Amino acid sequence: MNTLNTIGVSPNTTAPEALVQLLQTAERAGASDIHLHMRGAMAEVSFRLDGLLTPMASLPEQLAERVFGRIKFLSRLKTYQETWPQDGRIEAKDAGTNNDVRVATYPTVTGEKIVLRLFQTSVVRNLGELGLPEQAWAELDGFLGQPRGLLLLTGPTGSGKTTTIYACLRHLASTGGRHVITIEDPVEQVLPGIMQTETSEARGLDFARAARHLLRQDPQILVIGEIRDEETANIAVRATLTGHQVISTLHAGSCRGVVERLQVMCPDHSAIASALELVLNQRLIRRLCRECAGKGCTACLQTGYHGRLPVVEWFRFDEAARDAVRSRDLTLIQPQLTFAAQMQQLIAAGETSAAEQQRTFGQ
């Protein structure tokens, strides 16, 4: 565990100062989350850096309790409640950061835990900034120029799917001329020119119900945050067949796995074959720190890595592939460029390491 001074917090620091220092240090480092977990007489502090939870410091009990109270106060939560989960949000002006912070508390057997999600809302990447292989970029750009079709992204949590979707939305907004509606859980970044909506469990507004109603809003492009059930899957396929362009995510392990899972959820395989245009299977791998070439320095907080790179498998559907989907013979559904081939190229170029390949893919 690193010392308190690693993130500029000392036992004599006030709670408001300590919280601002934590948030600003995490923001400068590019962390996506801060985890604060009470464990007896101290709170462990970790940053999620480039997808990995990295221990950063510990806070003594009294300071930790004041920091926890400060977080709850700013996010309008019950400061005395430690035995029930709470969710809130701290506005950027109160947090001392460039962006809002989402707050989630939860009781554990060793004490309360708080996770702070740092929304990096100031910058939405364009397609060219995603770092996709050139052919994958061209396929994605070509799809977005079409009037209809179904694009499905897959990959584990934290694999960059949302970043890719927002880059697509920025592209669509810049070209203009089409009515774009999103259904998100939650809306992480507000984009001019896009009609963005959120699901709400409290109101019974899930992806399927929202999609049914929003199709009456005359969208040309419908973005569904995630296909989680049969009803949403069938709505997405039918919307494509009636002339809409649909973009969504579906959890599966591969391009072929996306088709297999969609076939389970939607019994009309002919409709699936007609709807599908492009599948992207994403992962994010850590980039070796350019300041120290992976040795560890202050710029990368001694991790040896700074920033991440996408590796993407993709499959574009042609008539032969559509026939394969209709017949349920999916041996033809193979990616154009495999993860293994991309990793070999990136390791040879000094962009990442063999250890990172082993961590991400187990090979």
Domain count, please report it: 2
Topology-level CATH name of the largest domain: Rossmann fold
Shape: globular
Question: What is the count of DSSP helices, taking H or I runs of 4+ residues?
Answer: 12
The top-level CATH class of the largest domain is: Alpha Beta
**Beta-strand content estimate:** 25-35%
Give the distance, in angstroms, between the N- and C-terminal Cα atoms. Answer: 29 Å
Brief sketch in words of this structure:
The chain contains 12 helices and 13 strands. It is of the alpha/beta class and 363 residues long.
Structural commentary:
- By secondary structure, this protein is an alpha/beta fold.
- It has two domains: 115 residues, Beta-Lactamase; 235 residues, Rossmann fold, CATH 3.40.50.
- The protein contains twelve helices and 13 strands.
- The strands form two sheets. The chain has a seven-stranded mixed sheet, sandwiched between helices. A six-stranded antiparallel sheet has the order 3-2-1-6-5-4.
- α1 crosses α2, α6 runs parallel beside α7 and α9 packs antiparallel against α10.
- The two termini are 29 Å apart.
Keywords:
363 residues, alpha/beta, Beta-Lactamase, Rossmann fold, 2 domains, seven-stranded mixed sheet, six-stranded antiparallel sheet, 13 strands
Topology:
Elements: H1 15-29, E1 33-39, E2 42-49, E3 52-60, H2 61-74, E4 86-90, H3 92-95, E5 101-108, E6 111-118, H4 134-144, E7 149-154, H5 161-175, E8 180-184, E9 195-198, H6 207-214, E10 221-224, H7 230-241, E11 245-249, H8 255-265, H9 269-275, E12 276-288, E13 305-316, H10 319-327, H11 339-348, H12 354-361
Parallel strand pairs: 7-11, 7-12, 8-9, 8-10, 10-11
Antiparallel strand pairs: 1-2, 1-6, 2-3, 4-5, 5-6, 12-13
Helix pairs in contact: 1-2, 6-7, 7-9, 9-10
